[in-house]
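WARN retry 2 of 3 for item q-0093 after timeout on previous attempt; input resubmitted unchanged.
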Amino acid sequence: MLDGDIDLDRIDVRHDLYLQRLAKTRRAMVDHDVPVMLVRDPINIRYATGATNMTVFNLCVPARYLLVFADGPVILFDYIGGEHLAAGLPTIDDVRIARGLSHVSANGFPAEESHAMAGEIAAIVHDQLGEVGLLAVDSLPFAAVDALRAAGFVITDADAVMSRARRVKAPLEVSYMREAARRTVAAVRDMEAALRPGMTEMEVWSRFVGGLIARHGEFVATRLFASGPNTFPYFKECGTRVIEDGDLVCIDTDAVSFESYQTDFSRTFLAGDRPAGAEQRMLYRRAYEQLRHNVALIGPGVTFESVARNAWVVPEEHRSSRYSCIGHGIGMIGEYPNLPFHTPGMPYPLDDAFEPGMVFCVESYIGSAEGVQGVKLEDQLLITETGVEIMNDYPFEARLLS
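OK item q-0093 returned
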């Protein structure tokens, strides 16, 4: 697939992407005075190296981890039998067998396996740096962290390092994110074309998931698809409810798509041929107004506090069920920041601003407790040098805007 003159499917282009991300990771390590980092979150491993292996399984069970030096080798400890998967990656210097670090992956002996892991890591670090000192880790199990401390390491937070590395996207990352968005949009189009009253929520949602996977997507991080009374309050997951004529139908994509980049936008549809009701149109117009208003506030150099203070004021009758934040960063998964609403009389908690190259999702949800229905809308924005670019090219429901 071409983005401008770049063939994003070429191996050398992908490898360039991985090398750029590893360089960003190492710069963030230097900025945080972190000489070495041990991460087991598969999203962090994927970001730093391009290596992937059973992502969803490894989100649940710690079965592989990565050792990264700010100035030194990158060593992947992979699941036994999967060592060959990283062959040829220019970001990885060595592949070894990982120890099990949880009760499941250690077959009931996490303390013993963690002790062995810590000894191996300490030996490598000592050989490279001459001493065992500061080590940044992410979501390692407590037995592994205890073992690393016992081996002499001073533990700090790798998530802060990785958040900094992933915050601003390089131009090549943006190309891949645009392609991920294009494929996700196509999958939603498949789903909308299939949407009919009489289908269950899961039947309709499966058209989206199937379309995503067929376009080399990886997985969907949530099951946020709902219809009719299931659209209020928000965050109900799709199930066996049969969609009826005239129902509101909401989808929040949360799609980990092409090359592991996430595309996150939301749309609400009107099922069937029945005309929209007055309350449905009111909810949709308010959600649309909230989304467009808040998108217009965002740009390079704009502070988070400015956006929060000037955000669309949610009417009182919707406030208790509003979305929890104005929006959130995104890359391979939800990222910094989660932008909270401004609370009058309280200092704003985030002293920061948008930068070109950041990608941010603006959220809108307007629901009615009386009518037991709601509207979810969301757009994914690339912050540019001059403004913003909406990355998801998907129309709004004309029958609900009239």
